[in-house]
Specification:
Layout lengths: L13 H7 L38 H11 L12 E10 L19 E9 L14 E9 L2 E8 L12 H8 L15 H8 L5 H7 L14 E2 L4 E4 L5 E10 L8 H10 L3 H11 L5 E10 L25 E10 L4 H6 L12 E2 L4 H17 L81 H9 L2 H16 L4 H12 L3 H11 L33 E5 L6 H14 L2 E6 L3 E4 L5 E4 L1 E2 L10 E4 L3 H7 L4 H11 L3 E4 L4 H6 L11 E3 L3 H12 L8
Parallel strand pairs: 11-12, 11-16, 12-15, 16-17, 17-18
Antiparallel strand pairs: 1-2, 1-9, 2-3, 3-4, 5-7, 6-7, 6-10, 7-8, 8-9, 13-14
The structure holds CIS-heme D hydroxychlorin gamma-spirolactone 17R, 18S (HDE).
Amino acid sequence: MTKANESGRIDEQSKQRQLDQYRVDDNGKKMTTNQGLRVSEDEHSLKAGARGPTLMEDFHFREKMTHFDHERIPERIVHARGSGAHGYFQVYEPMTEYTKAKFLQDPSVKTPVFVRYSTVAGSRGSADSVRDVRGFSTKFYTEEGNYDLVGNNIPVFFIQDAIKFPDLIHAVKPEPHNEIPQAASAHDTFWDFVANNEETAHMVMWHLSDRAIPRSFRMMEGFGVHTFRFVNEQGVAHFVKFHWKPVLGVKSLVWDEAQKIAGKNPDFHRQDLWEAIDTGNYPEFEFGVQMIKEEDEFKFDFDILDPTKLWPEEQIPVKIIGKMVLNQNTDNFFAETEQIAFHPGHVVPGIDFSNDPLLQGRLFSYTDTQLSRLGGPNFHELPINRTVAPVHNNQRDGMHRMSINPGPVSYHKNSLAGNSPEPASEGEGGYAHYQEKVDGRKVRQRSESFKDHYSQAKLFWNSMTEVEKEHIIQAFHFEVGKVKSKDVQQQIVEMFSNVDVELAKTIAMGVGVNPPANKSEVQMDLASPALSQEQMKVNTAATRKVAILAADGFNGSEVNQVLESFKSAGITAEFISHNRGVVTSSEGQQVEVNQTFLTADSVLFDAVYVAGGQESVDALMASKEPIYFVDEAYNHFKAIGAGKEGAEILSKAGIVSNDPASGIVAVTDKNSGSAFIEAIAKHRHWKRA
Ligand code: HDE
């Protein structure tokens, strides 16, 4: 273990160089025990005679088994299921005017980061594609210490005060008497909690929107949720909200597809992230900040400390200030993704907290939870958690202590060690809390300004396109439809009539309860187009995955042309056929079959292309799987392309063979090839609905 970097300068590889000291290469090496003793035999335990009892003195057996017996640690109480990657962050311009945070000053510096994406409710082994909020946590390994931005892919939260978090999570987790359902909010206790806690209204609208079923971790926004502070060198502060904007745009699955993916590939998002990085399609996110001057704190019709409220981007623009690139997969899931410990209280000078009561409670919870999850107070010494900045203090001992601090002095102040380690002045980088003036009585109260639970829920609803509204209604029908208690269902209808009476009537109809008695909804006529992912302009086919259905006798020149256009658009393709091995074109060209109709599934691809060539099409049509494959893609609104004879499969599935406006493209020449790419870039073709 080398000493920490005392020089202060960091670069993109600083963290990797540190991790290199812990990486172990077993390749070509002899097996040893944990004590370094070479092992001569690893298949038979030591016995008294070949058929006799195993002997206690078999230290190798005991060590191997003991380690195995203790290989599991408690999973995270929330966000147990996650996937992570390394990368770097670079600021576009110095942010000196607003913050003194060093990693936000110099555009030439690449600050190493580790990001962990997660679902909230499910266990560690649960499926990726469930309806849930996604965690989006970033650890910046800065020269001033670790800065953690522990956010979500939805900009608001269910509750306003941290004291209610255990209740929220108890309600959404599997019900305690029978541990059902796994990784799902569609059950009585969650909706009972919602109905009895009106502050959830806004977040529930997001939770039922397409945001809760992202296509990929690479295609979702990230939000710090809370209001934080930027503080500059002069001590001037701004309230800030943090944003991550995916370069590939914000894209989602459709619900039927999401449910099927949960079975067909529970690792859908994890694999997508892994493969993207593995193939050099590095996920990129731009970093944005919304800023409000301290003196403008009370200028809005919402309380900026209320975590169930967002700051409409049209009112307070997002200033894009940098970019993060994820370019390295983990070497070991457990050591890195599982052992990483985030904490919203890990800040650097220039970033400070606000009095958001949800944030304040989080500042306690995160270290506390690591104590039981990672087994003691030294989890900061685990390689993935180590800062690249030097660490000097008087903390000693504890479970699994790794640092060796020599000498008798472990207290401050002292004279025996020349009073070191010594606190740093602000000028030397010492963290100084923002000197906010606070004055109040000790009360258990919620501010009056936190009491409007419906205006922004309605703002969100107003901002949705028709298709997005339809999805929210379907999600209400599914989720509340799964609730057994008629009473809870009725309460939900009444509650959401405060948002929109028509919406509540539609929910009531779908779940079979009475229309709302309440006839007056909140007054809010504004819309915020920035909230609608359908209205975001980013449409690219890059990194999308297309299934090519082909059998022997496919039209080789046509397929080559399509592959060429895929390549230039950054699309990856897999050949699907009845059997693995190869398929041969009518011209004699052989291509490898990547998957069969048994191992692949339509829901795992962004688009389908049926290769032309009569012999191939006839062979494909000998069974119903290819027709089902295309039909599913159609039902999930995905782009479908077909070579000349491929159209026969489409018509067998009842699909009109050339309707580019609906994302069905006859791919017969170069022009139609680019029309197909455009159709893929559009992501979904709602016109079909
Ligand atoms: Fe968390 N949250 N949280 N949370 N949270 C945890 O910390 C908690 C909240 C978020 O990839 C836990 O290390 C409380 C909001 C993410 O490792 C725990 C409250 C937001 C992750 C915890 C909240 C988040 C966590 C569990 C209400 C979005 C995964 C394991 C006051 C801004 C981090 C752990 C990772 C994890 C507590 C609310 C995001 C128990 C008490 C709001 C992304 O400490």
